[in-house]
Structure prediction request, 281 residues.
Amino acid sequence: MAQIIDGNRIARSIRSQIRRQAKQLGLTPGLAVVQIGSDPSSTIYVNHKEKDCHRVNFYSEVHRLPADINQNDVLDLIAGLNQSDKIDGIITQMPTPEHIDGQTVINAIKPGKDVDALGTISQGNLLIGRHQIAPCTPTGIIRLIDEIGVKVEGKRAVCLGRSTLVGKPIGLLLMERQATITYCHSRTVDLTAETSQADILVVAAGRPQMITAEMIKPGAVVIDVGINRVGTELVGDVDFEAVSAVAGAITPVPGGVGPMTRAILLENTLKLAVENRSPAS
Ligand code: NDP
Prediction:
């Protein structure tokens, strides 16, 4: 049976460290969350972010904007947050309503406050290996892998999914750690042939339980990023029961990658606060 990687436990320990570190530094980092519209899942995620800030004694602002708001008004709000001394990190909850271009809103966040590192400049810095922070979900995945003591160097890593949010950046971060990377996506011809070679398999497709035991190399580390609502349940992209019998280590859904994404958002906010408030900056 695979080792189950407990994201909740690791995230708790990261939060304690953050709380301690901020206190030692005498800092109250500030996070601003912008939600446009009232998509129920987004509302849950935004509420979590607010609660997480309270847990580590960060300052937080949540801006809940109506779905029909004009894009320029959103950009004006971001411009104000860019100037605010209380705010070190700004994040816009995705997806945005159709008439708002999500990437334009993200790009309006100044790079020094782009806490999820999804703006064009932050992504470019990641690509050339000059990043101070990286997107929260992939950073959380690397921490999970580190936490179980798996050496990434020389391993074959397969990323299923190529989004800018998860798939592309996790490939870059694993390659930075000297893994050999394969990206798979909806046009990959023989998915099983690819995934069954993976020492580390990261699945971010958004397809409930699409990864079955036959697709796994025995002993592999399987990271399930997917969050799919099936009836009243949340399930991942991996058939957890069957794959646990073959894999060496596996993340559960819920309780794997999700809590890590939240913890790294706090960690990135602290890093930006240290950077923004240092006398030299
Ligand atoms: P996207 O929809 O942006 O990307 C999905 C990727 O999976 C695409 O590259 C797509 O290929 C590929 N794909 C979809 N279906 C298949 C298939 N049948 N075979 C092979 N490849 C496929 O999703 P995200 O990256 O934003 O999110 C992925 C999942 O992760 C979602 O369930 C999301 O909710 C979850 N998520 C979880 C987070 C967490 O903290 N746990 C954070 C962020 C996301 P193509 O490019 O060809 O279309």
Summary: Residues 137, 160-163, 165-167, 184-188, 191, 204-207, 210, 225-228, 257-258, 261 surround NDP (CB under 6 Å).
